[in-house]
Structures are given as C-alpha cells and as structure tokens.
Design a protein that fits this description.
single chain; alpha/beta; eight-stranded mixed beta sheet; 15 helices; globular
Length: 419
C-alpha cells in the first residue's frame, strides 16, 4: 500500500521547492523524438507544479531554500495513468473462472446466476463505504506501480441509486489516497433482467435521469456506453451521447470489441475522448478516430482473459495516425487485472506495440484519452508534478519485465510517496 509521506522537517511537501537532480528523464514531450529522453536531467517542483524539466545544466542549482534530491541516475517518467477501469464493484467472479476452466460456456455460467448480473447483485448489496473498502486494495495495487491518475466507471448498479453509489465511492477514494480519479457514467453497460428486450425503456428510465442526477451532484466527468450486439445499438447510444452533449460532458465508448457495429465512427462523430477495445475496428473507423482526435484505448487484459483471437488493427491505427493508449480494463469478469505494468507487457507481446508506444500509451496518450493532457501525462513546465521514479537502466524494462515492480518512489502534485 502507498502512504502519504509526512515528516517534521516538511520535506516532500508540495509547497516546498524541490530539485530532483542526477536523473534520466523520459519527458514524453511531444515536441521531442521517442520518449523525449534527457540523459543528465533535472526536475524542479513547487506548489504541486513542475517548474522545470530538462537538462541539469539548464537549472539554477543555487536557488535558496530548495531541497535537492539526488536520484543517483534513476529514471523519471510521468506518473502512469490507467484510463479505463471498473475497480468499484462488489464480490468477485473467481468461481466463474473456475467453471470456464472446467468447460462451462458463457450461457452455462449465465444460467447458473453468473456473468455481469452476479456483479450487479453483489454491488447493489454494498453501501458506499463498503464499496470503498472493497475497492481500496485494487486501487492500492495500481498506485504501488507508479499510477497517479485512474479513471473509474459505474456500470454494475443498473439502477439509478446504485449507479450513483458507485461514483460516490469513486469520489471518496480520491480523498483517501494520493491519486487523481476521473469518473465515467456507464449505466449503458448492460440491461437488467426487468428490462430485458426493452433497452429504450431502460435508457429513458435509468440511464438518462441517473446521468442528470450525477451531473447535478458533481460526481461525473464523462459519459460512456457499451455499443455491442449483447449491449446497446448505435442508435441507442446516440440518445445517451445527445444527453451528455446537452450537459456539456465529454463522451467515450466501448466499441468494436466483439463485432463491428460502427461504434468507433459514432464516437468520432461526437468528438469522443476515446473509443476502447476496438478488436473489430476497420480502416474507415480508424481514419475517423484519427481525424476527430479520438484516442484508441487498447485493453489487452480483456483480450487475454477472454482468449480472443481477433487483434485490434494496429497497422490501420498507425497508418491513420491515431493516438493509442493502453489500460487495464480492471473489472471482475473479463479483465481481473490490477497491474498497468503487466498491461504494457501484454500490449507489446499480444498486440505488437513498441516500447515507446506502450510507455506513451500509459502516460501522455492515456492523459489525452481522459481530456487531461494540459494537466498531466508529460514532464513539462506548468503541469501537475505527477511522476514516477524507477530503479531501471532503460525504460524498456517497464515493458519487458513480468511480475516485477521497479518503482522507487512516486510524486503526486509535488508530494513524494515512497514505496
């Protein structure tokens, strides 16, 4: 578990001037090639913001009253960002995993009371405080790997109060740990049994009025949906996106995961922050996303857990010039993954992303996918002082290693958090 660092001397406080020196930087500055590397680098921090990030020679090391931290040649990257998670939920689905190993089909599991509805039942049974307690270990696992920003979705309540409860829990988590949490309204995730065959009624009765309440309460930052044959159609998602637009909220979409319905093009037409999964994306959809600036968020944990064979069209995304992010998709059923470092390795080994794409995809591009690139995601003057300090000889180690965490320390809004 990560903890806030406190000391009587006040060292590490966000209002102190701190000089991190003798460091190697992966700035992720888009104006620089690759990861924006700086071999003999320094970072100056004050009041929770980056004052300077670049060559040590360019920094005045004689600034009075500054605390100087010699990093001994360690690497600094922007704080990692998990831009697609479902970490607030009740219960688990380990028994379903066991059943699949024993040969059960999705239908067998559903008939036995499993699937998403088992998570809905378990989530509905918990209070906000109980959801917070259940989610903290998952959050702590991510923070222990240098994550400083996490997106959390609703979607396991499927009624207005339970969906609101999930986002209230997400907001509460942000008061308990040094992390930036972005919330997404995903009531259009599935249809509960009492609305079976009546998606339109569910949207008008639950999704839209609940969204208005979440917005009024100030607990929602974006609106998401699941556009798929087993979930909601393009036409049904249009109604959700129109409501989000009327409230001034950005949108994103689970799209083209199991089939091609045109969800990515729909998302692009609304200027969506991101379209996520994308295994069945086509070239036209990739081009539309690139033109709209809609980030392609790849989720290798779900691809792995579901033993999928159809990979996202990486070549089409690269050719179109789309921005690519990577996330855990941490959820109880299809991606019980709480390691963004492992997600990076999976993206490389399963999808063929390069080291630079993986690191950019969990920093700069993940920030872009959350609409936060002006605030975090790179080491640049003026941005929030969110970064990770690593015991590595090369950034490639962050992608190459499996089951190994080389984090030395994290910094969030200028506050140091030691492992």
């Amino acid at each position: 578990m990560t903890e806030r660092k406190n000391s009587s001397s006040g060292k590490g406080r966000s209002d102190d001037l701190q000089l991190y020196v003798n460091a190697r930087l992966a700035t992720l500055d888009p104006a620089m090639p690759g990861l924006g590397p700086v071999e003999d680098g320094a970072v100056a921090v004050q009041n929770g913001r980056i004052l300077y990030a670049g060559l040590r020679d360019g920094l005045d090391l004689s600034i009075g009253g500054a605390e100087t931290i010699d990093l001994g040649g360690r690497w600094i990257t922007p704080g990692l960002i998990d831009c697609h998670t479902h970490i607030v939920y009740g219960g688990n689905r380990a028994r379903e995993f066991e059943m699949r190993l024993e040969g059960a089909t999705y239908e067998d599991i559903a008939r036995a009371g499993g699937g998403i509805l088992s998570s809905v039942k378990a989530t509905n049974a918990l209070s906000v405080d109980e959801l917070v307690a259940a989610s903290l270990p998952r959050l702590d696992a991510l923070l222990a790997e240098g994550v400083t920003t996490i997106e959390i979705k609703s979607g396991y309540g499927l009624n207005v109060e339970a969906e609101l409860k999930m986002l209230r829990a997400a907001r509460q988590l942000a008061t308990m740990r040094p992390v930036r949490i972005v919330t997404s309204w995903l009531a259009a995730h599935a249809t509960p049994p009492d609305y079976k065959g009546r998606n339109g009624d569910y949207i008008s009765d639950v999704v839209l009025p609940g969204l208005e309440q979440a917005h009024a309460e100030g607990i929602v930052d974006a609106v998401d949906g699941f556009c798929e044959g087993i979930a909601f159609s393009v036409k049904e998602i249009v109604g959700v996106f129109d409501a989000a637009k009327a409230l001034g909220l950005p949108v994103k979409l689970h799209a083209e995961q199991l089939s091609h319905l045109g969800g990515a093009e729909l998302a692009a037409s609304y200027g969506a922050l991101s379209a996520d999964h994308l295994e069945y994306l086509d070239e036209k959809g990739a081009a539309a996303m690139a033109a709209a600036g809609t980030v392609a968020v790849l989720l290798p944990g779900a691809f792995y857990a579901l033993q999928e064979k159809h990979k996202p069209p990486l070549a089409a995304l690269r050719t179109a010039g789309a921005n690519i992010a990577i996330a855990t998709d941490s959820n109880p059923g299809t991606s019980p993954l709480t390691s963004l470092l492992l997600a990076m390795n999976m993206a490389a080994t399963l999808f063929g992303l390069t080291v630079d794409e993986c690191i950019a995809g969990t920093t700069r591009e993940a920030a872009r996918a959350l609409g936060l690139l002006s605030e975090t995601g790179t080491l640049e003057a003026g941005k929030s002082a969110d970064f990770a300090i690593w015991n590595i000889e090369s950034p490639a180690e962050l992608v190459y290693r499996i089951g190994f965490n080389p984090l030395h320390a994290g910094v969030f809004k200028g506050e140091r958090i030691d492992r």
